Amino acid sequence: MLVTFIARMSMTIIYIQEALNMKTMLKMIIVHNISTIRKSIIIIIIMMAVEYIPILGMDIVMIHIIPISNLQVLLAVHMMIQGIQILIIYHRILMLVIKILIPLLLTIQKLVITLLTFLPR
Q: Which residues cross the membrane (predicted)?
């Protein structure tokens, strides 16, 4: 149903970004009927974050269909770009915390084990 809907419309891919470290492919496609171009423009945002959360190994697929006016298209694009940048920053912070936290926890575990072995029973 969605595929035939997209096939009937003329498509313009306005934004494709592959975010580094996230294995994320984001496509923002403006789909509009040529006869009703002034009435509404439909943006279909397909965001597939494959292994976005590396711990859980989740596949996230979100499809939004939003009918909006011409002015709102620019706003939506701007907000999407900002949103992606924020997501990338959050992801990098999360990865940094994980890279620091896991070795720290392992070191604490080793310390506790060595302390337990030396304690008299």
A: 36-55, 61-81, 93-119
